[in-house]
Design goal:
This protein is about 25% helix and about 25% strand. It is globular.
Length: about 180
Amino acid sequence: MSMQVSGLVHPYIRISGLFPIDISAHPGTALAICGSNGAGKTTFLKLLLKEIEPKKGIVHVDAHFAYLGIKNALKPQLTVQQQLSYFMSTQLDFPWPEFLQIVYKDLSTGQQRLVALWLTLHNSKSLILLDEPFLHLDARGCSQAYMWINTQLNLKKTIIFTHHCSEELHEIESLQVFDLNGY
């Protein structure tokens, strides 16, 4: 089991009609927590990360996971090659060799997000938590991200992420959607 939530109640998640929340995610599946701004998507991730405690209920998450928040949390003064060396224990084939010698802060916001997302998805952790992973990505970047996610799902990783609109996620395989919209 990668993630199990049972009987969850938290005042910042505005879906009182759904309480208590019972949901799980297992190896090889993706779980999208969808909803409008302020619906509680990031709060849900913070509960999984144990940054905040639920009002009641049980939250179980496997101890070893990777996390990418809204901010990319990479070192702006390092080149992309230095980022890869710093964060990766083994060198994988990075998809943009032309970025390697560029200082991270000099990339566009979308390029920065792709680098951070690639690093997060291509690690040794079996559970990956992503807060708005497609933030600042154009259509091509989103397609690339969907492909990376599907590759990791085929490797039996579990991916839990937030997003605003579930209709945009049709390219992701083995997808479960927990939709906070409309409550």
